[in-house]
Amino acid sequence: MNKELNISGDFDRHDRDIAEHDLIESMLREKGIVPTRQRIEIAQVLLEKHQHLSADQLQARLSVSEGFVPSRATVYNTLRLFADHGLIREVVVDPQRVFFDSNVGPHHHYFDVERGELSDIPAESIKVTGLPPPPPGVVGEDIEVIVRIRRH
Predict the structure, then answer these.
(1) Res 17: pLDDT
(2) Which residue from 59, 112, 138, 148 has the fewest beta carbons nearer than 10 Å?
(3) Which of 70, 7, 60, 83 is nearest to 37 (CA)?
């Protein structure tokens, strides 16, 4: 779980599950998302720690850890909803590879092309200079750097 979701201490597993469920429900409401059962279960798996998951990886984890398999459309729609509301971050590596990142803070990524895995690069590790001015009427919102790596 992210620090915000870390429920531990003297609770038994059932009490932790209830507390975690309530915390996630509250987080969803704060972001303007109606907390349905499926959204809560998806958020529990996705937000348990900083990670980068594809929709297929998330669906597979849900079937193992939560014991239910939401439709692919439900998973995609929920992930898009979460990203649109700033709960997670969508990382498009290429048109065939989209990951959903539970770390919404400023950072960049390494993409291991052989393993198909993303890992974080701290934002302060990369300096971007020399950008041209944006077109009239718009402002820059964010810069995301993806460094593709391969073993040799």
Answers:
(1) 61
(2) 138
(3) 70
Domain count within the chain: 2
- Do 16 and 81 fall within a single domain? yes
Q: Please tell me the predicted confidence (pLDDT) of residue 91.
A: 96
CA–CA dist 148, 111 (Å, integer)? 5
88 and 16 belong to one structural domain: yes
pLDDT tens-digit map of 36-57: 999 999 999 999 899 999 999 9
CA-based R_g, the chain, Å: 17
Same domain, 65 and 51: yes
Examine the domain organization and report whether 65 and 115 are in the same domain. no
